[in-house]
């Protein structure tokens, strides 16, 4: 038995060993799960979620939720939104045309109010119905783009509308997330004054970061360019990302908003390609941790159809899946051009993917939703992500490239 004075050190060593083992298991689950999902022609993120659920406390019990692991997962989410920002071309975003804009607006409004009304009808109150509606607004750019690319359909008019609208959806969705997060953090609750205040704050932060960042980013990168220190450029870029994420958190917004804004700014610099390459390499390690930890947090017993206690959860799940699908299908009505498949555009907008998962994670961390609502949100994200590729492939076989 170690001396009493050494016991804290022994405890630290034990905790470190458990942390390192858990991290190894998380990365292993991410790679095995992701690769397995891809072999079945599904997005890797689905396999990562399932892998996390299997190694989590509620199934095999190999990994338990700890504060250090959750912090690593948050860093993964920051990397993810930083990458999304780096890959977003603001010039294309501003020139996507009326159809993409209308598709995006319908694709946000209809699912939001549909989700809100469904949650309210099932007895939810306060911020919870608003948050449930907000989780249904975003569209996964990455998943839809991957399917269209594999089919050689990225240059079709439908594809350009889908991808342009999906980017707008993500921006609007992140703004909505900031509004809801801000309302939950300042305790102001659901009131028109609080919503207007937080909306203006979120919009001012995003626009201010982009405008000021565009003015400062390129001169700063040129200043550090001559420095010969290894990794100086992309480390400086990530420092910029962390500072904006920190600023967003200080003023009551979600840190991922700051990360997204940092990516938007650096995407317009001369060094953007090099920064993106290095950040993606780091993200290959950190981002899967975020998705696996989401799976670890999922209690599958909450979704057991044979347990009467879970019937209310299952009812909400079915209602939200229907709203999620119908709301995005309705977005196809925003297409103004002739000879463009509105149905194909609507189907392309269905997958919630990574941004939807970030909504769920943020809601659980902020205490807006409980474990049952969290499980429902994950199922909605996974189902919409799974059904889109086969539907999109079937529809685009009828669309001329």
User: Per DSSP, what share of the residues sits in E-state strands of 2 or more residues?
Assistant: under 5%
SS elements, strand count: 0
What is the CA-atom radius of gyration, in angstroms? Answer: 21 Å
For the biggest sheet, the summary is: none
What is the CATH topology assignment?
Answer: Na+/H+ antiporter like fold
Low-pLDDT ranges: none
Helical amount = over 70%
Counting helices, strands and paired strands, the structural category is mainly alpha
Describe this structure in words.
- By secondary structure, this protein is mostly helical.
- It has one domain (18-396): Na+/H+ antiporter like fold (Up-down Bundle).
- 75% of the residues lie in helices and 0% in strands.
- It contains 16 helices and no strands.
- The longest helix has 33 residues, at 7-39.
- The protein is globular and about 70 Å long.
Please give a quick description of this structure.
This protein is mostly helical.
SSE blueprint and pairings:
Blueprint: H1 7-39, H2 44-55, H3 67-86, H4 90-94, H5 97-121, H6 127-135, H7 141-150, H8 157-186, H9 192-224, H10 232-250, H11 255-266, H12 272-296, H13 311-331, H14 342-348, H15 353-365, H16 371-396
List keywords for this structure.
mainly alpha, 75% helix
């Amino acid at each position: 038995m170690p001396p009493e004075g050494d016991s804290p050190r022994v405890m630290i060593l034990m905790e470190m060993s458990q942390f390192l083992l858990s991290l190894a298991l998380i990365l292993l689950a991410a790679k095995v799960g992701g690769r397995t999902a891809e072999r079945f022609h599904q997005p890797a993120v689905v396999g990562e979620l399932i892998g996390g659920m299997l190694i989590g406390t509620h199934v095999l019990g190999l990994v338990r939720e700890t504060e250090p692991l959750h912090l690593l997962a948050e860093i993964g989410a920051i990397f993810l939104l930083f990458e999304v920002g780096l890959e977003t071309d603001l010039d294309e975003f501003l020139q996507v045309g009326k159809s993409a804009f209308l598709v995006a607006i319908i694709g946000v409004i209809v699912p939001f109010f549909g989700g809100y009304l469904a949650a309210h009808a099932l007895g939810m109150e306060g911020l919870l119905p608003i948050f449930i509606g907000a989780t249904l607004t975003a569209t996964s750019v990455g998943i839809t783009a991957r399917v269209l690319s594999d089919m050689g359909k990225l240059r079709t008019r439908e594809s350009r509308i889908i991808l342009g609208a999906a980017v707008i959806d993500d921006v609007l969705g992140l703004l909505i997330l900031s509004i809801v997060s801000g309302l939950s953090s300042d305790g102001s609750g659901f009131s028109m004054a609080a919503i207007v205040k937080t909306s203006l704050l979120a919009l001012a932060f995003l626009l201010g970061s982009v405008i000021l960042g565009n003015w400062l980013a390129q001169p700063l990168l040129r200043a550090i360019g001559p420095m010969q220190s290894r990794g100086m450029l992309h480390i400086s870029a990530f420092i910029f990302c962390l500072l904006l994420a920190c600023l967003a958190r200080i003023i009551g917004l979600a840190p991922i908003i700051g990360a997204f804004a940092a990516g938007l700014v650096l995407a317009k610099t001369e060094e953007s390609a090099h920064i993106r390459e290095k950040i993606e390499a780091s993200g290959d390690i950190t981002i899967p941790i975020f998705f696996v930890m989401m799976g670890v947090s999922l209690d599958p017993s909450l979704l057991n159809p044979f347990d009467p206690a879970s019937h209310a959860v299952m009812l909400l799940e079915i209602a939200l899946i229907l709203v999620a699908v119908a709301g995005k299908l309705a977005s196809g009505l925003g297409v103004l051009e002739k000879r463009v498949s509105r149905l194909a555009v609507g189907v392309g907008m269905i997958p919630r993917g990574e941004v939807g998962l970030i909504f769920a994670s943020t809601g659980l961390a902020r205490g807006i939703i409980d474990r049952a609502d969290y499980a429902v949100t994950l199922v909605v994200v996974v189902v919409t992500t799974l059904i889109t590729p086969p539907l999109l492939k079937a529809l685009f076989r009828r669309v001329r490239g």
